[in-house]
Amino acid sequence: MKLKRILISQPKPESDKSPWLDLPEKHKVTLDFKPFIHVEGIPAGEFRKQKIDISHYNCIILNSRNAVDHYFRMSNELRYSVPEKTKYFCITEAIALYLQKYIQYRKRKIFFAQQNIDELAEPIRKNKDEKFLFVCSDKATDKTTTYLESNKITFTQAIFYRTVSSDMKSIDVPGYEMLVFFSPNGIQSLFENYPDFKQGNIRIGVFGTTTYAAATNKGLRVDLAAPLPNAPSMTMALDLYIKEFNAKNGEVKPMVNFPTPVTTNGTAVKAAEKTEEKPAAVKKAAPKKVAPVKKVAPAKKAAPAKKKPVAKKIVPKKKAAKKVAPAKKKVTAKKSTSAKKKTAPKKKSSVKKVVAKSKKATKGKSNKRTAPAKKKLVAKKAVKAKKSVKAKSAPKKGKLKAKKKR
């Protein structure tokens, strides 16, 4: 048994690079895209009756691509230019990436979760003082409102578009082997078009916790619920499911990562109670076996604990004794070198004294040699003085002799 025909409850992708178009070639499956619901935008005149001014809100909460399209459509009709500082809080990453159609993608002003709005708790708390605008349809069945009310965050729920069930009576829905839904409104449209619908062997795939809850409340068996830990998108989850389904000929366990919700029939509640009783018994038995193991472990480790410190104390004593000898040698070597350095200048000082004595001796000899030279100079000066005295005194004697003659 293999999957051959799958009905996707949304419009056919316009892009040729869509991952939906790779599945038929990969698994040889035919995918038919028929939207179970269609959206009608509310005109600007009807929106004004809600008495909501978009310019007063800096934080916008978006839970679908339709919310993104109609928010920017309404802003254009009201002639309101969305500022760049506006922050966007998206329920999934796919919605955050879809914003690139209208704005530049920046991490500082776009926040997104993987599954629920609970994952946006931190960024919402940081902007708790600002006003939030929740863009939704007239049939909004989302946990967003309950979460914001419980955390006392000021927000306004504004209806931007209207969800209407499509006419699906011309389509042979029971002839498909698997149906894929993306919103609770799609499941509601299924039962509006086919009130006596019976699932039988038809596989049901859903995306999101609210769609999963709506399907189980209608008594449907969900075989695939995305996102999964290893498949965040519906295309990736469906790729894994088809691969395993064809490999095991239809004997596949449901791929569901969500907790089982409470249904109107109470079947899910009983199943949850039975599953919860089994792990409780295992948890009680586990500590009984583990307790004795913990007591025995420290008893074995106690004996080597005393021997190890004794060995550690003996080793450093031997090493210390070996290290003392080179230390003394170094000290004696240092002392000998210092002694040599101190004695060296004594020799230099004695040499200096000898040189000084030799210089004094040479000075005395030079003085003795120069002494006769000095006496000769004195004698010459004395002779010159006498001659000068005689020369001066000679005419005076002549004059005296002349006077005497007269």
Written description of the protein model:
The chain is α/β, with parallel strands linked by helices and 406 residues long. The protein has a domain of 87 residues. The protein is 53% helix and 13% strand. The chain has ten helices and eleven strands. The strands form two sheets. The protein has a six-stranded mixed sheet with strand order 3-8-7-4-5-6. β1, α1 and β2 form a beta-alpha-beta unit.
What is the element layout, followed by pairings?
Elements: E1 5-8, H1 22-27, E2 30-33, E3 37-41, H2 44-48, E4 59-62, H3 65-77, E5 87-90, H4 93-98, E6 110-112, H5 121-126, E7 132-137, H6 144-150, E8 155-165, E9 178-181, H7 184-193, E10 203-207, H8 209-217, E11 224-226, H9 234-247, H10 267-405
Parallel strand pairs: 1-2, 1-9, 4-5, 4-7, 5-6, 7-8, 9-10, 10-11
Antiparallel strand pairs: 3-8
Helix pairs in contact: 7-8
Summarize the structure.
With 406 residues, the chain is an alpha/beta fold. It contains ten helices and eleven strands.
